Amino acid sequence: MASIILQVDEEIKAAFEQANPEIQKQLSHIVQLFLRGNLYDKRFTEVMAEISDKAQQRGLTPEILQDILDDDNDQ
Fold first, then answer.
1. Contact 16, 24 (CB under 8 A)
2. Global pTM?
3. Residue 49 forms part of a structural domain
4. What angle is formed at CA 22 by the lines to CA 17 and CA 28, rounded to 5 degrees?
């Protein structure tokens, strides 16, 4: 596995650093999905649609996603 540096604001950096390791792992996976493949030939909306399709195929429902987001807001 390799590392890259992404420019984010201080709030995002702090939120990532404070997230539990499982959330950090999930976010890393999302970034990998986003950047994998022929990103340069695709629109942002196409890439996001592909990520959404893959997440749904793996069992992520809108309800589960909302629960994850709600849990994150409670912290």
1. yes
2. 0.53
3. yes
4. 70
